[in-house]
Amino acid sequence: MDDKVKKIALELVELSKEPIDKSDITTDEIEMSLIILGKAQKLLRLVENHCFK
User: How far apart are the C-alpha atoms of 50 and 1, rounded to whole Å?
Assistant: First the structure.
């Protein structure tokens, strides 16, 4: 289980480095992205606390 969690965490880190196409983003999409990002950050903190400490 821990290996799967670490793999997902590393994939999330890699995805966070990809450039974003800003040409046609709406306000709703930005708000939704921020909500998702907040949840992802919480999940990442849980994973870090579980795996890397």
Answer: 11
Task: Classify residue 43 as exposed, middle or buried by CB count within 10 Å of its CB (0-12, 13-18, 19+).
Answer: middle
d(CA 35, CA 17): 18
Tokens of 43: 């999940």
CA angle 15, 30, 39 (to 5 degrees): 55
CB of 51 within 8 A of CB of 13? no
| Cut 0.70: pTM above it | no
- Name the more confident of 53 and 34: 34
Cβ atoms of 51 and 3 within 8 Å: the answer is no
Max Cα distance, the chain (Å): 41
